[in-house]
Amino acid sequence: MDALPPENLYPYTVSRPIYSNPTFEEDNERQAREERTLRDRLSRTCGCSGRQALKVVKGVFPVIDWLSRYPIREWLPSDVISGVSTGLVCSLQGLAYALLVSVAPVYGLYSAFFPILTYFLLGTSRHISVGPFPVTCLMVGSVVLTLAPDDHFLLPGNGTAVNGTKADGIVVDVETMEAQRIMVASSMTVLVGLFQVVMGLLQVGFLVRYLSDPLVGGFTTAAAFHVLISQLKIVLSVPTNNHSGCFSILYMLIDVFTNIRQTNIADLVAGLLTIVIVMAVKEVNTKFRHKIPVPIPIEVIVVGNGMAHGQYFTVVK
What we know:
Elements: H1 21-27, H2 38-46, H3 50-60, H4 63-67, H5 72-101, H6 105-122, H7 134-147, E1 154-156, E2 164-167, E3 170-173, H8 174-201, H9 213-236, H10 248-258, H11 265-287, H12 298-316
Antiparallel strand pairs: 1-3, 2-3
Helix pairs in contact: 5-6, 5-7, 7-8, 9-10
């Protein structure tokens, strides 16, 4: 069989009219370009009608948009219950996370309340509960201890001062130390917030896609380990020094095990009982969540009981 020439291997025929520029524009219904003056273009670009202004305001404050369409009868009872329970948990977490930042617990209450109020006005999701996070608290706490350590506020003294704590003849100016640490934590918070605003304007959120699951999991596990180690000295109630920088966890563990004989047995037993009770009640809430209309607020019960016993022992002493 003779081979066909290359031009006959794939024969095809194209039949179409030859387009000219006027014919193409006529078939595709080209519209004539409207000539506008600079004033007309500026008025259309920079002008703002009442509807456009309302749209911009709703974009900045989404609460104006969804609050008018909120189904009160269907959602309000459940939202009140979930809001109260979530608010109590956030308040208690704020008290604990303030210790990670090395500031007074009252500032943890501020950080638990004001972010939720701000997100109510500016947020777009009804499933998010904002507030302090242990990893960020540890990061801020490391900076606070680096820039405002205890050694910077030691004063010589023969007795316990009004605003200080005596330790081996040395008085720590607690009031000045707390003010300096609050200033450092507040400055860092504002600076990080400015960075986040700039990153949001630049749309760099896509970088999160390149974080692998093992990386995120390892980071979360390491953060949990940091939180556990930082709470050991509180559960055991042993004296330790404040450490920051590299190997701070190892130094803290050395201090804990060095002073392990000074453990307050009452605090240790109370802490272990609290952990066991909270974990058990949380399991009950999870297992019977379809039968219990309101979850048992075990965190509030435990903290309230602890505060009542603390006041009782203070009165007795």
